[in-house]
Amino acid sequence: MEKKKIISKKKEINPSDVTICDATAQMLEKAKRDGVETAFDRAANMKACPIGADSACCKHCSMGPCRLSSKDPYGKVGVCGATIDTIMARNFARMVASGSAAHTDHGMSMLDLFREVVKGNITDYEIKDPDKLEEVASSIGIEVEGREINDIAMDLYKELERTYTQVEGEIPFAKRVPEKTLETWRKLGIVPRGAMREIMELMHRTHMGVDQDYENITTQINRTALADGWGGSMVATEISDILFGTPSPVSVEVNMGVLKEDHVNIIVHGHEPNLFESILVSVNEPTLIDAAKKAGAAGINLVGMCCSGAEMMSRHGIPHVGNFMSTEAVLITGAVDAMTVDVQCIKQGLAKVAECYGTHLITTNPRCHIEGAQHMELDEHNPSACTDEIVIKAISRFKNRTATIEIPSIKNIGVHGFSHEYINYMLGGSFRASYTPLNDNIINGRIRGVAGVVGCTNPRVKQDWAHVELVKELIKKDVLVLQTGCSQIALAKAGLTSPEAAILAGPGLQEVCETVGMPPVLGMGSCVDNSRILIAASAMVREGGLGHSIAELPVAGAAPEWMSEKAISIGQYFVASGVYTVFGVTFPIIKETKFHKLLFEGLEKQGLGKWGFSPDPKEMARMMIAHIDKKRRELGIDKARERVLMDMADRQALEA
Ligand code: SF4
Ligand code: MSK
């Protein structure tokens, strides 16, 4: 019998169905005309594997791969006898190990750079924020009084190196953890020793035939995630601030309208700030500006993307062109002369799109090469050799542009750069910098609680939609929102990072925002900068009046459009620190299994936080607010809130 030919037809996407970012949608329309494919098209044509999505398969040895059933999870076991709980816990553990490795390796690179700067072997970077250096050093017990900056810096380096290499004991930043939270960790045996040891042990324990008890695996999951949040990520943030400056609020332009047709456009995308800092020097080099002008350009336009961009907008007010799901779309403008990338969240698909438009896609980090991209390694001993060359390549592409250019004329302005130091100062004032006003406003109920809304964008969800809907709902209910990473950019594009957005907040939060002149949504930087949220939470505990551990605070976290393993590690370190953390999109565990119950209920009973899940942002907000209200009740401050609402109602009645 003649076999019927099956002609598979690719599903076409409708841009307005896959993103609420108008600039990205406009570029997806252009992509269709230009015959260019993006991750949005691939997602529409790639059905996610349902067994993989539930983590119900194992390929840890060649007796498998073993596929268990999501519908009947206890119906069978792997060839070795591994149960569904073991298999899911091991898979989840390896996501945490990988995410934690990414952040800690980034942090270690920053620390390597810091050491070489302090030793004088690298001279193109310097200690820009000596106050922060002293503050970080004293926070972990290093004497600073009357000492030379370089001596303090060397001691700080030696101490922070333990974050990675220590085999026994507690990581240095454990000293910053509120006492009661730390006690819980000690009791559970989850205070990290050193990141290398924790990640190594987690990989060992998840090897075939080692740890086959989901509860015991979870102990090491917690320890490894905490080695990220209070270790690698925190070191990355603190050292970057010391070397490049601690952010303070700055007005920034965001969205694709920041590209300029008559300029040489260069985008930096990735995560490590040193590449961006050096390229910033190169674009200001008079000979290179002259070269750009000779090529017919009005100048050189340097803009950021993703988390590199989030760091640079916070430190220097450099315009930001978009988040993770816009990285291909921005190349479709045809206006990008060079996109340079270092590590993390860099889609391989960029190489093909860049080729279509003649854009130079340049990798600069030895850890990340991409087939089809040009590799030009950044050597911190002589960074301009790489970054000048990138600018020269961009100029030559400008001179020989052939691609049709279409730049969406959309720009949004917001205020970003709220480091925890600045929040302290902003609320308390320069003479009494403290978290007291924040705590007071939470206690009196003007601010109901604090939410961290962070994380990626993901083509399985309408881009930016879940972030924006969730945050709008939270601020409407008087919840102050702290943000990092791609989520922050989603809200910036929606106009919610400007002080004027206070009008969208509930009456209590609006009053606080208007008094201080701040937006209801505070952008704190890149995804490693989630450590700033941990420090802010610790400061709230220390300030008093809101319990003695992070788990007692009226706070919650969310990553409504997460996609990376780093996001899972971040979620887990927030949970292990005591925060109720709700994820969207999908959760890589089968419901109604023992492992699920442990993550979603059991950890809270141990004195930690817990996971939550909902793909619906409104439901997510409801869950977070219910948790915040529960914490307020437990703290006995729920009545204060009722009083404030009564005051407000009274005032409105008077006004009427
Ligand atoms: Fe299958 Fe066990 Fe091997 Fe995993 S470790 S692939 S469950 S036999
Ligand atoms: S870049 S990890 S997509 S936030 Fe940090 Fe954005 Fe998520 Fe990457």
Give structural notes.
The longest helix is centred in the N-terminal third of the chain and has 36 residues, at 84-119. The protein is globular. 56% of the residues are buried. The chain has a 6-stranded parallel beta sheet with strand order 12-11-10-13-14-15, sandwiched between helices. Strands 5-4-6-7-8 form a 5-stranded parallel beta sheet, sandwiched between helices. Helix 6 runs antiparallel to helix 10, helix 11 crosses helix 16 and helix 19 (465-476) packs parallel to helix 25 (617-635). With 656 residues, it is of the alpha/beta class. It contains 26 helices and 15 strands. 50% of the residues lie in helices and 9% in strands. The chain folds into 3 domains: 84-244, Substrate Binding Domain Of Dnak, Chain:A, Domain 2 (Up-down Bundle); 256-399, Rossmann fold (3-Layer(aba) Sandwich); 418-640, Rossmann fold (3-Layer(aba) Sandwich), CATH 3.40.50.2030.
Total strands: the figure is 15
CATH topology of the largest domain: Rossmann fold
Q: Any idea of the CATH class of the largest domain?
A: Alpha Beta
Instruction: Indicate the overall shape.
Output: globular
Average pLDDT confidence is: 94
Largest sheet: 6 strands, parallel
Question: What gap, in angstroms, lies between the N and C termini?
Answer: 82 Å
Strand content: 5-15%
SS class: alpha/beta
- List of distinct ligands in this structure: iron/sulfur cluster, Broken Fe4S4 cluster
Low-confidence stretches: 1-7, 650-656
SS field, number of helical segments: 26
| Domain count | 3
Q: Largest sheet, order of strands side by side?
A: 12-11-10-13-14-15
Question: Helicity level, as a percent range?
Answer: 40-55%
CATH architecture tag of the largest domain: 3-Layer(aba) Sandwich
Radius of gyration of CA atoms, rounded to a whole number: 25 Å
